[in-house]
Amino acid sequence: MIRNALWLAIAGCLMMSGAAKAQSWPEGPGRQLTEETCGACHRTSLITNSSGYDEAGWRHLIGTMIDLSGTDMLNEIAGYLAEHFPPNDRRAPTLVEGEHSIRFEEWVTPTLGQRTRDPVEAPDGSIWWAGQWADLVGRLDPESGEMEEFHLPSGAKPHTVTADAEGRIWYTGNGNATMGVLDPTTGSITEYEMPDPEARDPHSAIVDGSGRVWFTLQRSNMIGRLDPASGEVDLVTLPTANSRPYGIKLDSSDTPWVAANGSNRLFRVEPDSMAIEEHELPGDGTHVRRLAIAEDDSIWYVNSGLGRIGHYDPRTREAREWPSPSGPDSHPYAIALLDGAVWFNESGQRPDALVRFDPESESFQSWPIPSGEVHAGIIRHMRPARDGSLLIHQSSTNRLLRVMPED
């Protein structure tokens, strides 16, 4: 018997058209069942482009998404995948040795298939995450390992979470066009609807020093500002079409800067008027998922489109870039500054590589990121914690991780 409650959603997805199915998968026993079950909730290209597994590996990976244990379905699906998608090294990262040491701590979140993502530290030291596919946010006590999940309104599909100074947890309702906030002391949730029907997909968010919540809307090509005191939401559309605003950070003057996943630009938002200032980066293929702002207000960014990391000085408008160790298809994704170094991940590789870049020596060092018994990913966000560690995650295996530098 299938015991995962998410199977109800998956069963409903099976009524969908064949758009999510694989193209030209090999014939054989289990093909149709595998296409329908896997394609119900994600692109099946994630399978064809994976590093492949033996039957035990496929069983383990399936078990992070849905509980099929003890069913003929599991035997049929895992057998088909193992036969036609065995282990390969097509996406193996180029790991760089170095003098630094790190230690990983990891926790597996309770609800299967939730796509655990975007961990952030709250003022009380707890770690919060978004379970996007399960409409939940969760809290981890890193000292005891205890976890609690809070269910959000159906269809919210939270893309990210961020904490304000009072410890309230803000989330972006990527699926129902809302911004929401959870009061952990009472469990109450307040939703704020978008004032424009074209504002469909709140994406990433951050809280400024006055308590206002800034957020991006990627496919809507907008940036939003929410004032919790009045409940008012203001929106501005980016001047360059299809810029797909993604990551957002604040500089030392509480001014938002936004990365563009659809154009070779960074955007500065004037905090009061919300006027947009464009900053063009080199390279027509440049797309920036996320950015990090240094103490001098210069900007480090991942050039996801060209497989590089970059540094941009807003005062001189000069940019400089370095190739990521695994090359142009490595797809750097998340980025953070920690202890004088730039940290990012290569999401195009299996396993994901965590990379450290030293700006002084311009040297790299990298490590494979653990994800249980499989090489799955991916890290979509990373944020420093107050103890000098780095908070990351592995969406495909529902893992939260803390990276502890040891030197």
Primary descriptors:
single chain; 407 residues; mainly beta; Methylamine Dehydrogenase, Chain H; 2 domains; 4-stranded antiparallel beta sheet; 5 helices; globular
What's the CATH H-level superfamily name of the largest domain?
A: YVTN repeat-like/Quinoprotein amine dehydrogenase
Oligomeric state, counting identical vs distinct chains: single chain
What percentage of residues falls in helices of 4 or more residues? 10-25%
Low-confidence stretches: 1-22
Q: What is the alpha-carbon Rg in Å?
A: 21 Å
| Average of pLDDT | 92
- Biggest sheet strand order reads 1-28-27-26
Instruction: Provide a count of the helices.
Output: 5
The major β-sheet equals: 4 strands, antiparallel
Overall, the morphology is: globular
- Number of spatially distinct domains: 2
CATH architecture heading of the largest domain: 7 Propeller
Q: What's the CATH topology label of the largest domain? A: Methylamine Dehydrogenase, Chain H
Q: SS-based structural class?
A: mainly beta
Distance between termini?
Answer: 49 Å
Name of the level-1 CATH class of the largest domain: Mainly Beta
* Percent range for β-strand residues: 35-45%
InterPro entries: Cyt_c-like_dom_sf, Vgb, WD40/YVTN_repeat-like_dom_sf
Keywords: Signal
Pfam families: Vgb_lyase
Protein name: Cytochrome C
